[in-house]
Amino acid sequence: MKYQPNRLGTMIDCSRNAVASVESVKKWIDLTSSIGYNTLMLYTEDTYEVSGEPYFGYMRGRYSREELRGLDAYAKNKNMELIPCIQTLAHLNALNRWPEYKEHFDVDDILLAQDERVYLLIDHMFATLADSFTSRVVHIGMDEAHLLGRGRYADLHGVEERFGIMARHLRRVCDIGEKYGFRFLMWSDMFFRLASGGDYYKPETIRDEVKKDYPR
């Protein structure tokens, strides 16, 4: 789908409590498209089917690839772009309850940066999205990873400056997504938290030497 320079849209959280049914999402598309909206974002942490990852969303409720393709086609027919919103760093606590994924995590719900198992999982995520959505815009999350680098990562690599951990992980995620033709959106709170010492958005500027490490 052609990139829309002027977006007016909403985001449905499909990861808290219950996953919105396909029919409910279609009704929302009908409503919002009728009043001029051209974008719908589906926020899914582990609530979508991922090829090669059978426990992704298992026993929790998730959209199948066929359901996502159907919703994508339905939205497109209403002149609306359906954009996936996933998580590629934190907010994957539901996945962490499965023993098969214990080695994928740093601490709590945060994936273990610099671990090739993690990047294979993220590759599987992008491959599934590329097969399920016509949009090549994806929101990659990256928010609220408060303990990044302070769990198993520190045990394996030592204590590091966390801007560097974020930068390397972000670059790897973007390199993987670009293989499938994606462009990226993301939350920005972690950058401001690390720059200001813990607060969300304060007027402190992020240092130029830090900015250069991040993909444009």
Question: What does this 3D model show about the protein?
Answer:
Helix 1 runs parallel beside helix 2 (65-77). The chain contains 8 helices and 7 strands, in the order E-H-E-H-E-H-E-E-H-E-H-H-E-H-H. By secondary structure, it is an alpha/beta fold. The two termini are 22 Å apart. It has a single domain, classed as Glycosidases (TIM Barrel), CATH 3.20.20. The strands form 3 sheets. The protein has a 3-stranded parallel beta sheet. Strands 4-5 form a two-stranded antiparallel ribbon. The mean pLDDT is 91.
List the helices and strands and how they pair.
Elements: E1 9-13, H1 22-34, E2 39-43, H2 65-77, E3 81-85, H3 93-96, E4 105-107, E5 110-111, H4 116-132, E6 137-139, H5 152-157, H6 162-179, E7 183-185, H7 189-196, H8 208-211
Parallel strand pairs: 1-2, 2-3, 6-7
Antiparallel strand pairs: 4-5
Helix pairs in contact: 1-2, 2-4, 4-6
CATH architecture: Alpha-Beta Barrel
CATH hierarchy, class: Alpha Beta
Strand order of the largest sheet: 1-2-3
Largest sheet: 3 strands, parallel
Rg of Cα set: 18 Å
In CATH, the topology is named TIM Barrel
* Number of distinct helices: 8
Global outline = globular
Compressed to H and E, one letter per element, the order equals EHEHEHEEHEHHEHH
Into which percent range does the helicity of residues fall? 25-40%
Number of strand elements: 7
Return residue spans where pLDDT drops below 50 for at least 5 consecutive residues. Answer: none
Give the number of domains.
1
Q: Give the oligomeric state.
A: single chain
Average pLDDT value?
A: 91
Euclidean distance between termini CA atoms: 22 Å
CATH homologous group name = Glycosidases
